[in-house]
């Protein structure tokens, strides 16, 4: 049966009927009014703005209870826009001067407004056009008195198929209690839509290309968010297999919860630290609840991707302090901002790049924008008094970058000392190993840093020359390629010889297929999405280091990805059943 692959952005397996959401824009008939009706239409318009603003405010509060205030801030744009008197005034003018109905005036204005965002060079600002469509839908539904929730009322749970979804559409759909999951044609793993799906725990796949053309309402779909796979109208065997898998996953989750307080310790006594990856400080308690013994990757760039613009030093200090305090002396690895590539900050400083992943990204951007980098380092250094704070520099691909970054860090420390701030003078400094260059020169890097963390998401894409966010080459993107595994081995060996701790913080760390191999290779710290921690712990508690080492050696003797995967699948099955 047709099977489509996309980017799984929120894990879980569901099976259910599809509803394909209308992909066309809302069309409002051109309607003009009599002059005498102007006050009436103006009244309707003002009421629609007010009701939409109240509704979104309520949604924001509800959402923040479930997913934290930072994520709920995504709706800040809608709220601020609806509270701003300017758009309302301009729409009123259209009613007054052109005698448009309130609904038509809204649609004319919003179309123009949306176009302005679509024409902007920055992909981040282009994304805002989706929020504009969202606001338009809300206003039009308020004006027409229709419910804006397509799934209101009783009915079976469904999988939504759409060209794209806005964050507030997902929240509204989720509220209906009928949303099993969603799949979209477009979208990348770092879109707001993806972040919201993961925050709500809704299985989701984006970037499927043309799922809206391939699936129809009423089709049965299997959505495997963990592997980014959708099956359209599965046959009986596929249905049975996936339904069993979904039930199995639920049982497994319940069983794993029992391991929360236990160590990730092999049967022969080796302890592995399982840390959490976060984007916002209020995710720390969730990580601890899943059994994380610290945070191995705080992706701070997400603080910079809010509508409100880059956070000030003070705001960052508060964010880092909140995370450090919530961890109560457990380690907190703060990665300096990894902007660029597919993670763009709002603001006008972005020149379009032909190859953004090979462009002014990450540490390269930071080193060229000291007015942003220095306040970030100041905030991190100041937060060091509140816990076990460590600094990590992303995408280091040559020793000079590490030296420059450390130079700026030292300047910042001197500055803070002169200003009388308290901070720990010996904050550990780490580098991410995300490029083949860094892996090959790990020895030199290790001489000048306190720890190394392998960012396999990027290491894979740069080693294999496969864009990690491009669904068209997704089948070529694999951690199991011998070249990737050998680079990891090289870095681990350097760490062991030079006594510099090495961890892995890319998605590979949380992929159960690689747990035994990573442990057998000697990795003592793995950092992953919190939801993967219990599973990794279970596997580690079911193996001996002797076996894991044997597996690690054998894997490195294979020539192809297929052999690696087959072998690892078999070895993992022995301790974990059917993964
Ligand atoms: C990585 O590249 O593996 C990594 C952890 O960083 P990010 O996914 O944020 O690029
Ligand atoms: Mg990376």
Low-confidence stretches: none
| Major beta sheet, strand line-up | 1-8-7-3-4-5-6-2
* Approximate helicity band: 40-55%
Q: Work out the strand percent.
A: 5-15%
Number of individual domains: 3
* Distance between the first and last residues' Cα: 22 Å
Q: CATH topology of the largest domain, what is it called?
A: TIM Barrel
Given the C-alpha coordinates, what overall shape results? globular
CATH class of the largest domain: Alpha Beta
Ligands present: phosphoenolpyruvate, magnesium ion
Q: How confident is the prediction overall: mean pLDDT? A: 87
Describe the sheet with the most strands.
8 strands, mixed
Cα gyration radius (Å): 25 Å
Strand count: 16
Supply the number of helical segments.
Answer: 24
User: Mind telling me which CATH architecture of the largest domain this is?
Assistant: Alpha-Beta Barrel
Question: How would you characterize this protein structure?
Answer:
This protein has 579 residues and is an alpha/beta fold. It has 24 helices and 16 strands. The protein folds into 3 domains: 3-19 and 151-251, Phosphohistidine domain (Glucose Oxidase, domain 1); 35-144, Orthogonal Bundle (Enzyme I, Chain A, domain 2), CATH 1.10.274.10; 270-531, TIM Barrel. It has helices at residues 38-67, 69-72, 76-83, 85-98, 102-118, 123-144, 167-175, 192-200, 211-214, 236-256, 284-289, 301-304, 313-327, 363-368, 370-383, 399-418, 436-440, 442-447, 456-464, 482-498, 512-521, 533-541, 545-555, 561-576, and strands spanning 3-5, 7-10, 13-20, 158-162, 179-184, 204-206, 220-224, 229-232, 273-278, 295-299, 331-335, 388-393, 429-433, 451-454, 502-504, 525-528. Helix 1 (38-67) runs antiparallel to helix 4, helix 1 (38-67) crosses helix 6 and helix 5 runs antiparallel to helix 6 (123-144). The longest helix is centred in the first third of the chain and has 30 residues, at 38-67.
């Amino acid at each position: 049966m047709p099977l489509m692959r996309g980017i799984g952005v929120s894990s879980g397996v569901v099976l259910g009927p599809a509803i394909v959401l209308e992909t066309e824009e809302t069309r409002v008939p051109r309607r003009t009014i009599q002059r005498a009706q102007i006050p009436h239409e103006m009244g309707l318009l003002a009421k629609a703005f007010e009701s939409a603003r109240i509704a979104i405010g309520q949604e924001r509060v509800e959402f923040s209870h479930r997913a934290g205030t930072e994520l709920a801030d995504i709706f800040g744009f809608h709220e601020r826009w609806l509270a701003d008197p300017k758009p309302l005034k301009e729409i009123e003018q259209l009613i007054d001067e052109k005698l448009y109905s309130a609904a038509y005036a809204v649609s004319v204005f919003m179309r123009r407004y949306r176009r302005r965002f679509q024409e902007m060079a920055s992909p981040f600002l282009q994304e805002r056009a989706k929020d504009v469509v969202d606001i338009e839908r809300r206003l039009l539904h308020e004006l027409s008195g229709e419910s804006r929730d397509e799934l209101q009322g009783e009915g079976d749970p469904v999988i939504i198929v759409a060209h794209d979804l806005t964050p507030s559409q997902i929240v509204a759909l989720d509220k209906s209690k009928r949303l099993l999951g969603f799949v979209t044609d477009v979208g990348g793993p770092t879109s707001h839509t993806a972040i919201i799906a993961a925050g709500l725990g809704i299985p989701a796949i984006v970037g499927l290309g043309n799922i809206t053309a391939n699936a129809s309402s009423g089709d049965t779909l299997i959505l495997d968010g963990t592997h980014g796979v959708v099956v359209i109208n599965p046959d009986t065997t596929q249905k049975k297999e996936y339904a069993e898998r979904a039930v199995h996953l639920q049982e497994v989750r319940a069983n794993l919860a029992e391991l929360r307080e236990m160590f990730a310790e092999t049967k022969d006594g080796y302890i592995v630290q399982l840390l959490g990856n976060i984007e916002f400080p209020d995710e720390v308690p969730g990580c601890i609840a899943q059994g994380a013994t610290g945070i191995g990757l705080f992706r701070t760039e997400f603080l910079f991707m809010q509508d409100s613009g880059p956070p000030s030093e003070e705001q960052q200090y508060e964010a880092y302090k909140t995370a450090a305090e919530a961890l109560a002396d457990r380690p907190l690895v703060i990665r300096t901002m990894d902007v660029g590539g597919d993670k763009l900050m709002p603001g006008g400083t972005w020149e379009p790049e032909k190859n953004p992943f090979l462009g002014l990204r990450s540490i390269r951007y930071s080193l060229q924008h000291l007015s942003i980098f220095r306040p970030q380092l100041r905030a991190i250094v100041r937060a060091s008094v509140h816990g076990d704070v460590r600094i990590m520099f992303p995408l280091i691909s040559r020793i000079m970058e590490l030296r420059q970054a450390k130079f700026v860090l030292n300047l910042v420390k001197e500055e803070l000392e002169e200003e009388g701030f308290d901070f720990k003078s010996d904050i550990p400094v780490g580098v991410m190993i995300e490029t083949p260059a860094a892996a090959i020169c790990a020895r030199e890097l290790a001489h000048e840093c306190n720890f190394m963390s392998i960012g396999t998401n990027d290491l894979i894409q740069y080693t294999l020359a496969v864009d990690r966010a491009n669904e068209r080459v997704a089948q070529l993107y694999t951690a199991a390629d011998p070249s990737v595994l050998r680079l990891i081995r090289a870095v681990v060996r350097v760490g062991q010889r030079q006594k510099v701790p090495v961890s892995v913080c890319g998605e590979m760390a949380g992929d159960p297929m690689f747990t035994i191999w990573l442990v057998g290779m000697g990795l003592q710290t793995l950092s992953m999405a919190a939801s993967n921690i219990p599973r990794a712990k279970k596997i580690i508690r079911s193996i001996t280091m002797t076996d894991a080492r044997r597996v690690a050696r054998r894997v490195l003797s294979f020539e192809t990805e297929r052999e690696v995967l087959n072998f690892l699948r078999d070895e993992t099955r022995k301790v974990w059943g059917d993964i």
